[in-house]
Write a structure and sequence with these properties.
- The structure is a single chain.
- The protein has 291 residues and is of the alpha/beta class.
- The chain contains 11 helices and 13 strands.
- The chain has helices at 4-26, 44-57, 70-78, 93-103, 132-138, 154-162, 178-184, 206-213, 231-235, 256-265, 267-275, and strands spanning 32-39, 60-67, 84-87, 110-122, 130-131, 146-148, 173-174, 192-196, 215-217, 220-222, 225-227, 242-249, 279-280.
- The strands form 2 sheets. Strands 1, 2, 3, 4, 6, 7, 8, 9, 12 and 13 form a 10-stranded mixed sheet that branches.
- Helix 6 links the parallel strand 6 (146-148) and strand 7.
- The termini are far apart.
- InterPro entries: PBP_domain, Phosphate_ABC_transporter.
- This is Phosphate ABC transporter substrate-binding protein.
Length: 291
């Protein structure tokens, strides 16, 4: 009988070890695993930069960034087809209620960057600025002089929301894809392109430099003052079409999605946002004068 005791103890120890290892495997982990982030094309660049930074910090993670129209990405998030989505439009009370019901989480948008919707013309255009009145009237005109990158896009949703309209109530033209809008707008000299700033914002990116050289960004005039979608215009939210980018997740524990969100909102993630040419939401440049 005494000889059986060590064997029994060893057997019980092995059972406990296996049970603990299984429990450990199932426990949440922010530093390993795979995840897909859904993002509108307009802010795909900054999302990819943050994903690359996270994977460098946590080599056992693999993050795929998938471009999807904002409204469709939100629906996929609700239906548990993705763990995280990047958003820009303010959700309606009905959408917030649906989110909280479907996901069973409190609506807590994780804001991480200030972006903008920009209006532009080809480089050789004589037009140098645009007023809020022109934008409002133009989007009600049958001429359809404003060219967006698609229906259900974040740019269209945001402009409609800013004008207190539904996207279906606006009149506009479409060239699918933000880069295509830039490259093809010179074929339509009387049109005005509408894209997201992040499409062209990265300062030292060669491809973005080429795109910037093709266009003239129009300052928006409101109440007699003109504002550019630059650092000052975004930081103070003075540029009328400044928008705040934020993450939504359906992940209730501290797994890879929430780990990524925390990373993006910390100083390291915010430095990546700044390198993208956008305004960090959680940190601001401080100037100290020495006397």
């Amino acid at each position: 009988m005494n000889k059986l005791k060590p064997v029994l103890v060893l057997f019980l120890f092995l059972i406990l070890a296996v049970a603990c290892s299984k429990k450990e495997e199932k426990s949440p982990s922010y530093h390993k695993g795979e995840m897909t982030i859904l993002t509108d094309e307009s802010f795909k660049s900054v999302t990819e930069a943050l994903a690359e930074g996270y994977m460098i910090s946590y080599p056992d993670t693999k993050i795929k960034v998938m471009a999807k129209k904002e409204d469709l990405g939100f629906i996929d998030l609700l239906n548990d087809k993705a763990r995280i989505a990047v958003m820009s439009k303010e959700l309606s009370p009905e959408e917030i209620k649906l989110y909280e019901k479907q996901v069973d989480l409190k609506y807590l948008p994780a804001k991480f960057a200030a972006d903008a919707v920009v209006f532009f013309v080809p480089k050789n255009s004589v037009k140098t600025s645009i007023t809020m009145e022109e934008i409002t009237a133009g989007l009600q005109s049958d001429d359809k002089n404003f060219v967006f990158d698609g229906t259900n896009s974040s740019n269209l949703n945001f402009v409609a929301q800013k004008l207190k309209k539904e996207p279906r109530d606006l009149k506009f033209s479409i060239i699918p894809g933000s880069i295509n809008v830039i490259e093809e707008l010179n074929k339509y000299p009387n049109k005005i392109g509408v894209i997201g700033l992040n499409t062209i914002s990265r300062p030292y990116d060669k491809e973005m430099e080429k795109l910037r050289e093709m266009i003239k960004i129009l300052p928006v005039t409101t109440n007699g003052k003109s504002y550019y979608p630059n650092t000052d215009g975004l930081r103070e939210m003075k540029y009328p079409f400044t928008r705040v980018l934020y993450f939504l997740t359906n992940e209730g524990n501290f797994n890879i999605a929430n780990g990524f969100i925390r990373y993006s909102c910390t100083q390291l993630g915010q430095m990546i946002v700044e390198k993208e040419g956008l305004q960090p939401y959680n940190i601001y440049r401080r100037e100290v004068q020495m006397r």
